[in-house]
Amino acid sequence: MAAIDIRAVQKSFGTIAVLHAVDLSIATGEFVVLVGPSGCGKSTLLRMIAGLDEVTSGDILIGGRRVNDLDPKDRNIAMVFQSYALYPHMTVAGNMSYSLRLRKFAKEKIDAAVSSATDLLGLRPLVDRRPKALSGGQRQRVAMGRAIVREPQAFLWDEPLSNLDARLREQMRAEIKKLHQRLGATSIYVTHDQIEAMTLADRIVAMDGGHIQQIGSPLDLYERPANLFVAGFIGSPAMNFFEGRYRRAGDAAFLDLDAGASISVPARPVADGFDLTIGIRPEHVLVGEAARPGAPVCPVELVEPTGVGAILHVRFGEAPLKAFHLGRTALRSGESVAVSLPPEKLLLFDTKTGRRLDD
Questions:
Q1: CB 124 within 8 A of CB 106
Q2: Alpha-carbon gap, residue 318 to 340, rounded angstroms
């Protein structure tokens, strides 16, 4: 396995720039997830690492070796695609061994590599089947096995679970995580699904508009998002946001909301009247008996049961607010409930720049 270094990499298609001076270092054995909305540049970056797209400027190093001018076959990396890309006329064993046969490996080594991979992935009973006789999850495991037998320096995963249903995605996430723990392989994984990013990654790279917005552990991005984009993209249900103006009153601080309410916020060294956006995650909103004394009573517009709890959609002043209520609730649409926003759970952002204000 090898470290991967991306140094000031840019990518343009004609006059359109899609990646802007990206810098990223991935340690040997690390599992890094590139996450962001469609068109943010994450798949383009992965394809440049693989050698499928050319680098406009900057350098990509794998194991300390500059690979910009190397063909994909010479980079010693393996890629798992969204579409599985299996040969329909070949068996499971044939698909997994194909790249080794092309490279003229000895039959004994090929058989040993395929045998090890099929055992690791639970494919031993399926080795003689063709792809049409496999489920979606089984096909994805075959694609993973085809990558494993090559013993590459790094694994690249290009949205490998997006074609699976929700139950299979959950199962395959766990299998990929276990596989990484067993192999200790350097891995770069691309997804637009922030749940995949949170559950799989050692570090997440959040991207938007061809720029890296933040790099950190899943909890870093969840609890200390660098800006409004990361705060809004990471987390499900999504974070609540309110805009207003900062106001000091002695030792206390408030945000006078555009939505027509005023709430207590942590003090920050900013001027009165400064435009702020506050964020609070739905699970931190206190409702009903948990709300603090004097909390405003807000109308409930929608209740979404989730099994482990319910997402309450309420009207806070003139603004919509989501609260996650753990456990069962008797609340129904049209009723009212007390709601409070704990100041210690609020995140403050500069409305103009989007940057989070330091604690």
A1: no
A2: 15
DSSP string, 311-329: EEEEEETTEEEEEEEES--
pLDDT, tens digit, 9 for 90 and up, residues 332-359: 999 999 999 999 999 999 999 999 998 7
- Nearest partner of 25 among 215, 221, 234, judged by Cα: 215
For residue 255, give the amino acid letter. L
Per-residue pLDDT tens digits for 146-191: 888 888 899 999 998 887 888 888 888 888 898 888 888 899 999 9
- Class of domain 240-350 (CATH, top level): mainly beta
Bridging pattern class, strands 154-158 and 77-80 = parallel
Pairing mode of beta strands 347-350, 16-26: unpaired
- Calpha distance 173→160 (Å, rounded): 10
Q: Write down the H helix ranges in the chain.
A: 42-50, 92-102, 107-121, 136-148, 166-183, 194-200, 218-223, 228-233
Domain boundaries, the chain: 4-233, 240-350
Q: Are the beta carbons of 233 and 35 closer than 8 angstroms? A: yes
Going by C-alpha positions, the residue among 98, 185, 177, 199 that lies closest to residue 143 is: 98
Q: Which amino acid is residue 240, in one-letter code?
A: N
Q: Which CATH superfamily is domain 4-233 in?
A: P-loop containing nucleotide triphosphate hydrolases (3.40.50.300)
Q: What is the secondary structure of 112-148 as a DSSP string?
A: HHHHHHHHHHT-GGGTT--GGGS-HHHHHHHHHHHHH
